[in-house]
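so im writing up the methods section and need the DUF1287 domain-containing protein record in one place, dumping it here so i stop losing it
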Amino acid sequence: MLAVLAALLILGAGVAGLAGLVATGNVNVTSASRPENKYTGVLAPYACASDADGDGVDDQTDILSAALRYVQTKPVYRSEYYTGGYPDDGCGVCTDVVAFALRDAGYDLQALVATDITEHPDDYGPDAPDPAIDFRRVRSLKVFFARHAAQLTCDVHAIDEWQGGDIAIFDSHIGIVSDQRNENGVPYLIHHNAPSQLSYEEDVLEGRDDLVMHVRMGCE
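--- predicted struct ---
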């Protein structure tokens, strides 16, 4: 990727032009390479008994693996409306990391959120429901996960309570917790935050002050 950026600069795109290409998604600078696991301590093994899609792989492992597969497709950060709900053009935003990860584990977040809105409309605010976009809104997912997922600690230093495949929700952002950790044992985050993001899997949990929910889907 650095070679591509250098070539664009040499060809005359210029810094401002290159920034414009990144901002519009015409150049994807986000790497799907996984960071090194830096934690050398020992954590108690965690076992999840649920398997929503019946594939013989527990939900926690399924969700984590699916999130990693999704970012390996190197989605371009772009906020668009899709009549079918799930993006089908190689683009996406933060909520799509979670939606695709859960779908591949047996949880159709689009259908689940639509059902929850039908059953609890007052909890989701005055906007008319739109199944094509509701499940891709962080504010909707906060309401949904508060009711349908296990609520866990937001203390990122309680490292034994964080597992790969968990979901971290911020004021206006969301991502999947990685199974790789920094030197303090705090896990990395698999997420899609901006066109200028350098890696889909980053050591950001300790540096953010807007974490509002930490949940686990299916597994208690």
